[in-house]
Structures are given as structure tokens and as C-alpha cells.
Specification:
about 260 residues, 12 helices, four-stranded parallel sheet, alpha/beta
Length: about 260
């Protein structure tokens, strides 16, 4: 979901600067180029340095690593042994932790195929107000709910168009990404992603894959209910009841509040 590195920074710097330089020549002529270029170059570098050190990007990276470490820690813990089913409820940056926990678990199972790896299973996964990039999730959705997906039951996304944190701050920090907590995802988008990336589903008809998706995926637009990014917490019980999440919303709510 992050796709950020120093290479991207260098690529932006090398591609933007010639365009700005040419713009100065076109508008002011070569005489003003030396004076204007030094200021422009300085300004571009300042902007890119600020962007590279953005605290949200650092937190996003930490959330990815946390998800991977959490998976490895839980696999070592006796209380999370075989024949256990886990359901995951996550919110905001916690959805990034959840996603990378799932992707790490899926990769470990894939690497251990035929090697006696006996893991616990993942039942239902709920992502609310998610900071996960929509396109990144679609590119990995086959690993979650595909023919060999890690999620046994259902992946559910809850989003709100009133979420100004994701609408403005997320877009400012992650210029080329769209948070699913604001954008949501459609059944058609998930079907297309599965038929593109899942080898076993490529041979199936679109109708067959759509039937699978409707059993394994839900997306709820709660714009009329959730008025801000922070509105999920006080309304958690109501949201869980509304979407019929597992019918154990009081237990989930109590655990979530304590954590």
C-alpha cells in the first residue's frame, strides 16, 4: 500500500525539474533562467524533503511492519494454535496493520505448502475508515478472498464520504492513492481484480466469479451515518449491528473499547 522509496523521490526530482526549467525559459527567456532556476530548484527540494519526511508516511510504514511482526508473534504463541478461528475488526491505520498481518500469514502458508504448516484460520475481516489504498487492496484481494484466499468467510469494507481526514489529509500525504475508507470498492472492481490475478478464477465465467464475490465480500456506504473519521468509535455498536457483523457486536465492541 505504501510503494514509497528514495527511488521515487529521485524520480520525481529528476522529472519535475526539467519541466520547471523549460517553463521558465518559455515564459521569461534564458536571461532570467539562472536567477529563477535557483529559487525554483530550492523550492522543489524543500517540498520534496517535507513530503519524504511526512509523519503519516512514517506511521504507514510502521503499521505495515507491525502487521508482519504481529503475525509472526501470534504464530509462535500457544494460545493461537491450530483449530482456532480469528475474526478481525480494524479501524483507520489499524486496517493497514490488519492487511499486512493477513498478507504475511498468506505468504507463510504459501511458503509452507506441503511442509506441515498447520495454522489457525481467519473467519471474518472488517475494515472501517481504512487508510489502505484501494488499488493496492484490489491487487491483493485474490490473496484474501480468492480461490486460495486466507479469509474463510467474508471481507467487509465500511466507508463514508464524510471522512475529511481521508479525503484531504490522506490525499495530501499519499498523492497517487485513494483510501478505501473514503472511496469504497464495488463488486465489479473486485470481480475484475480476481479474474486478473487469480489463476484458478481466470477460467471461470464472470457470472461464477461474481457469485463468489457476493458471498465473500461486502462494502457498506455509511455516509448518512458516519459524519467524520472519528465518528466510528462512538457509533461502533450501531455500525456492527447495522451491517450484521457476526451477531456478536457487544463482545466485539467491549474488546475494541478496552484496547
Amino acid at each position: 500500500a505504501l510503494n514509497w522509496s528514495s527511488d521515487n523521490y529521485d524520480n520525481v526530482q529528476s522529472s519535475v525539474w526539467p519541466l520547471l526549467k523549460q517553463s521558465v525559459v518559455n515564459n521569461f527567456g534564458n536571461r532570467e533562467l539562472n536567477h529563477a532556476s535557483s529559487k525554483l530548484y530550492s523550492g522543489v527540494n524543500v517540498f520534496l524533503d517535507i513530503y519524504k519526511d511526512n509523519p503519516f508516511i512514517k506511521a504507514h510504514t510502521s503499521a505495515q511492519k507491525t502487521g508482519a511482526h504481529l503475525c509472526e508473534a501470534m504464530l509462535r504463541a500457544k494460545e493461537f494454535g491450530a483449530h482456532k478461528q480469528l475474526d478481525i475488526v480494524s479501524f483507520s491505520l489499524g486496517t493497514v496493520v490488519a492487511l499486512h498481518y493477513l498478507l504475511t500469514l498468506e505468504q507463510i502458508e504459501l511458503d509452507s505448502l506441503g511442509g506441515g504448516f498447520n495454522r489457525f484460520s481467519i473467519g471474518d475481516v472488517l475494515l472501517m475508515g481504512s487508510c489502505v489504498d484501494k488499488h493496492a487492496l484490489l491487487s491483493n484481494v485474490h490473496r484474501l478472498i480468492g480461490s486460495k484466499g486466507i479469509i474463510r468467510n467474508k471481507l467487509t469494507v465500511v466507508y463514508s464520504r464524510n471522512d475529511t481526514v481521508l479525503k484531504y489529509l490522506f490525499k495530501l500525504a499519499k498523492l497517487n492513492e485513494d483510501a478505501i475508507g473514503y472511496e469504497g470498492m464495488t463488486v465489479d472492481e473486485v470481480v475484475d481484480a480476481l479474474r486478473t490475478n487469480d489463476a484458478d478464477l481466470k477460467a471461470r465465467s464472470r457470472f461464477d466469479v461474481e457469485c463468489i464475490v457476493r458471498k465473500k465480500f461486502d462494502c457498506y456506504d455509511l455516509t448518512d451515518i458516519i459524519v467524520s473519521h472519528c465518528d466510528y468509535r462512538p457509533k461502533l455498536s450501531y455500525v456492527l449491528k447495522l451491517i450484521g457483523y457476526k451477531n456478536n457486536y457487544e463482545f466485539v465492541d467491549s474488546c475494541y473499547v478496552r484496547s
